[in-house]
Amino acid sequence: MKLVLASHNPGKLVELQALMAPLGVQLIAQGELGVVEPEEPFHTFVENALLKARHASRATGLPALADDAGLCVAAFGGEPGVQTATYATRFGYEKGDANNVRALLEQMQGVQDRRAAMVSTLVAVRTPQDPEPLIAVGRVGGEITQAPRGSGGFGFDPVMFLPEFGKTFAELPTEVKNAHSHRGRAVRQMLALMQEYWL
Prior knowledge:
Blueprint: E1 2-5, H1 10-20, E2 26-29, H2 45-60, E3 64-73, H3 97-107, E4 115-125, E5 134-144, E6 160-162, E7 167-168, H4 174-180, H5 182-197
Parallel strand pairs: 1-2, 1-3
Antiparallel strand pairs: 3-4, 4-5, 5-6, 6-7
């Protein structure tokens, strides 16, 4: 089955391709098909993911999969949340993973409550008008470290510490990260939904 991935994030594409390969799902990045990213006006992951999936499906005529994911920091009332990708720009930095990490660590100086969660919400639609989108949510709780650790992954992986492993996401081998990450959990739910309802 071919699905257009409603994302321009290369790290997300690689991760999702690896996770979905066992089901024979082939993901094609929307950028390869000339699809531009839509504005994301909503405040929840599920609303933005649904909008992105419908947009990609409408533009390509293919079924679409969208992932809206982010970091939710307890001390910040769940922020940056849906604004995770552009977090650094709020503090005068250019958009980018390294600047996001830098801005977060600066904002968390002196903050005792370091609890945070990585959340991934996947939405799949057969058509832009699909009345029954498939929705899967994966969540992993942990803590924000005082400094980046590890060189793997992308996004906030170097500062997302998982107590059960004693490591950050960026310190874990890829197969371990994919098995236990927020996106890995969401993908397993999504694959089960696709098998039940689409295949």
